[in-house]
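Need tokens for this chain, all 121 residues.
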Amino acid sequence: MILTISVTVIAAILVIAVVIQISILLQIRRTAREMEKFFEIARMHIVPLSHDLTVIVKEFNIILQSIHRQVDRTEESITTVRDTAVRLRKLSKIGDTLLKLPVLVCAVGRGIEAFVRVLLR
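Here are the structure tokens for all 121 residues:
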């Protein structure tokens, strides 16, 4: 009797183990199908995405090249403005001297005039 009960228990455990294994295998199979679907969808989306990224990178490179050209032009403009400022500073010094020149000529003229008056007396 114990032998019959033992064999029955072992058989029941084996049946339960087989049922659990079958359900696990079925779940693994469903998961594998879902993964196949996911990878197919991902593959279909990666190609256009890759193309779009390539286009974006090309446009970004064009924008960077444009910025580099504009920076070079800006550097040239800044250099030109700096040189112009230096020239204007020099010109203002010359202008100050030229403005003082009539005053100096007038003063020299009056000095000569006073000297002549003193000599004529």
